[in-house]
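Please go through the sequence line and token line underneath and see whether the fold suits the sequence. See right below:
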Amino acid sequence: MSNIYRDVTLNQVSEADIGKELRIAGWVENIRDHGGVSFVDVRDMYAVMQVVLRDGALLDGIRREQAVSIKGIVEKRDEETYNPKIPTGTIELEAHEITVLGGVYKNLPFEVQISREVREDVRLKYRYLDLRNKKVKDNIIFRSQVISFLRQKMTELGFLEIQTPILCASSPEGARDYIVPSRKFKGKFYALPQAPQQYKQLLMVSGFDKYFQIAPCFRDEDARADRSPGEFYQLDFEMSFATQEEVFKVGEEVLTATFEKFAPEGYAVTKAPYPVISYKQAMLEFGTDKPDLRNPLRIIDVTDFFQKCTFKPFLGRTVRAIRVHEKMSKGFHERLLKFATGIGMGGLGYLEVLEDKSYKGPIDKFIPEELKEEFAQLAGLSVGDTIFFMADKEERAAYYAGMIRTELGEKLDLLEKNAYRFCYVNDFPMFEKEPQTKQIGFTHNPFSMPQGGLEALETMNPLDVLAYQYDIVCNGVELSSGAVRNHDMRIMKKAFEIAGYDEEVLKSKFGALYNAFCFGAPPHAGMAPGIDRMLMLLKNEENIREVIAFPMNGNAEDLMCGAPGTVTEQQLREVHIKVRD
């Protein structure tokens, strides 16, 4: 049966069709009226084609962004009018008949071709128009291609795709849940899953060996440039009878293959095996657990050395330093100092190494002469180096050093160009002390296996216990978190007890896992790379909303459809809800 709107899509029209009568369909992108002859650029999902109108009556009532069907003869363009920027640039369609399929009855809120330059709130309100923009649309097509490749790759590796529930039980850990009231069970609520964590572990207990899912996750948390509020997608996978190293190999194979296939031309991608950096090492050398390995600068610890010197602001404090071999003007030092004070530092000490290997800078006089050679050896100093110092309590010193390292790398243009540099960060602390309450809680995933098992939990200071937890980081962006899971009910009970959850809470909130672990649970491990962040990196977008078809704004609002919105009193009554003033 023939299509009444079009014979072909625009990418299918070529010089081989010259002389043929064809019907095309699409949107009117541009209109150029030259008096006796007019030109209309028609766009469909695949391409743009020029249509020539030699009968002026055909142009009557035609407006930009109308959906139209046009019948005509394909002809060769005059050579001087060729458009090498488009595939159909050597041909045009001489229109004999135009039918408006979808009218435009309001003024356009913006020009589709330049929609990315429009305010974000306007773009999101009229997202269906924004998506007509070629670059915006191409990002969504690209997203589909990447997800299709991920599915293919996981299937090739023997993983089985299984969907887990969207309506599930609320849990007391992690980010805030989105909760859904129950109509049938008064006063009870479902939650949207923050991740398929419990279900994928239960699949391993069920005897499935390798599971994966392009999983929607829902968290009621604030937006950032690299985090979409409300919902996001991840490549969630889990493996039975697997070690941390086996999960690493799968992550490396899938991510390297994906980035090599979809990275912009000329980009380098880290080959397996990825560098593995402990959390402790990451905080020392990079000042963050999300290290950007494109930046060649490294942080060193000079705390012990400065306890032998007379500079009072460094005494009794953690002191970190960064050595840079670059020329820096006085203006650069002033701007860096301004940045340092802007992030909360009291100042920014430094030393420059002169031609005679002596030091120049405000801290020089506080280093005894007999210790200067020792310091040069410790810091690896050479002529032309500048070394910067950050001092505070350990956590703040690490933070400041990390921020200064990033600022130096960016402002001195030190970052490796056109590269995706991956690493694993592992050996995270299992527990941490909550700053306000001073209570011990889980650092990351409460379902992780503690290193040392039950014995470690029973005999060690909880703050010294490490977990089999790991992240994948690419160019300073956390792409994935994962862990070797706790599969032993006794260890699970003790871990939650340390974090302040008694056995009754464990049974009520995590009853499925608690009970399942009583029936021969296998060792299992997995991870979940974030798809939205992968796409953001691959497309070099600064905002994650550019790779999502219908994103919310930074305030978690759907400006297009008006969510969140009000509901009727009847709807509230049906789910036993009363809204308080």
